[in-house]
User: What shape does this take?
Amino acid sequence: MATGALNLRRKNIDLPADTLQKLSLMAVAQGKSLKSYIESVLISKAASISVQVSDNPSPSGDEWYADEANLSVVEEGRAQYQAGKTRAYSMDEIKKLLDI
Assistant: This one.
């Protein structure tokens, strides 16, 4: 594997013994070392994946966060929290305030 201008990172991984045995057999069948074979499989798989990062902060993609007005309310609340202008309420306090 050419390392010219590539930014390589080292990562140790743990694999079950039977998985390593199967990968070793696949590597031998392709005339590669186990390390080289695993690298080529992972690089090929990663190259085939399209990764897109959404501006929507919701893990579920909730459309509520697509509305700029809603995001501004969230940002305002975050700013108030960071400025120490917020207060936490217990459930009992909330029930008392709501008279329930």
